[in-house]
Amino acid sequence: MATCAMRTGWLASAGTSKYSSICPKILQSALVHPNALNSTTILTQKRSLFVLPIGIDVGILGVTAYFITRLKKADPINVEQIFGPDPWSKESELHPEKVVKCIAHRGASLDAPENTMQAFKYCVARDCNFVELDVRSSRDGHLVLLHDEGLGRLTGTEINNVHVMDWDEIKNVDIGANHPNRHQFKEVHLCLLDDALKYLLANDVRVIIDVKGEDKEVVQGIVKAFSEQPNLHQRAVVTSFNPFVLYRIRHKNPKIVGAMSYRPYCFSAQDYDAATGPSNLRFGGSAVVQGALRLADWVHARAWRLCARWCGVSAVLLHKDIVHPREVQYWRARGVRCAGWSVNRPLEKLYWRGVLRAPYLASTLLGEPEMTNVESKSEPLKRSSKPLLNSNCI
């Protein structure tokens, strides 16, 4: 409420000192202050304010911040150089040999010890020119190729977190000790990202770098790798389950081709498949914690697409059991490539090649369909799958 005081000479008491430098229209009904010694006229006017309901103003600010901070996608030319032509495009029909079909998951981890130089050499020897690998950092800042936090699953040792250990302490550990084909791969050691990239680029192999760590060392290390080897922009993709990690990397270098990884129940469970659902719960003994994690899963399932677009991704890597023609079409309509993991059965691979017509990450190169057989078998699938995709476009 604004108040305007007008008088020829007045002395008001201490309790009547409210006034405004802006004098509104004078009202006809004025109040005379009873404590004023002289004739004093106090004029008042009500002032209306427009206030948004609680929550709407915060929502508007949030939406505005989302669009202001959203990153742009990488150069489409770089995306095509990495993933090849869109499998549904005319160019893919003219040049089917350029279409990416199989990506070696962790360097074909079922065939050779995962994320090792031996695994990458195995892929090169079998003409697989696209691999996926996992990266996290050691205590002294080295970028180590490793999927888990520790080495227990691979070695049977009690090393639970390599991030609290220096590279010299873990570089000589035999991580092929528990592999099914360990008799073929003896004394297999951890590999550094720089060494792997030099070998893969020298052999014209494209790479998906899956960032597992969330610390600043791994973020800075990825950005540094691209700055030191600029041709990585046309040969490598950076992906993460954590949108904030991916955003930090692409914010520092927007030219990096980014991808978002997703699977259901990633907060509450370590494993998932369509037959059994989530399994190997992270905190199975605490009902309260498990309930909170399930709530986080519910929010994540509804927000990850927005997060992916916020990071300006050019591809999404999804658990194979949640991918269907509508999901592929959803991302294709937005100019984003869609790939699934891990697709290991021969029939599944034929389905991805012929019906979904999307690349897949495979943990084994065995049972990989021959190109000539796939082309002859997938023609009828192409004709039958197109109407399905168009009729379910969202």
Description:
With 394 residues, the protein is α/β, with parallel strands linked by helices. It contains 13 helices and 14 strands. The chain has helices spanning 56-69, 76-83, 90-94, 117-125, 152-155, 167-170, 193-202, 216-228, 243-252, 287-310, 325-332, 346-356, 371-391; strands at residues 2-6, 31-32, 41-45, 102-104, 130-137, 143-145, 206-211, 236-240, 257-262, 269-273, 277-281, 315-319, 337-341, 360-362. Strands 4-14-13-12-9-8-7-5-6 form a 9-stranded mixed sheet, with helices on both faces. Helix 8 runs parallel beside helix 9 (243-252), helix 11 crosses helix 13 (371-391) and helix 12 crosses helix 13 (371-391). The protein is globular. It starts with a strand and ends with a helix.
Question: How would you concisely characterize the structure shown here?
Answer:
This protein has helices at 56-69, 76-83, 90-94, 117-125, 152-155, 167-170, 193-202, 216-228, 243-252, 287-310, 325-332, 346-356, 371-391; strands spanning 2-6, 31-32, 41-45, 102-104, 130-137, 143-145, 206-211, 236-240, 257-262, 269-273, 277-281, 315-319, 337-341, 360-362. It is built from 13 helices and 14 strands.
Features:
single chain, 394 residues, alpha/beta, nine-stranded mixed sheet, three-stranded antiparallel sheet, 13 helices, disordered N terminus
Summarize the helices and strands and which ones pair or pack:
Elements: E1 2-6, E2 31-32, E3 41-45, H1 56-69, H2 76-83, H3 90-94, E4 102-104, H4 117-125, E5 130-137, E6 143-145, H5 152-155, H6 167-170, H7 193-202, E7 206-211, H8 216-228, E8 236-240, H9 243-252, E9 257-262, E10 269-273, E11 277-281, H10 287-310, E12 315-319, H11 325-332, E13 337-341, H12 346-356, E14 360-362, H13 371-391
Helix pairs in contact: 8-9, 11-13, 12-13
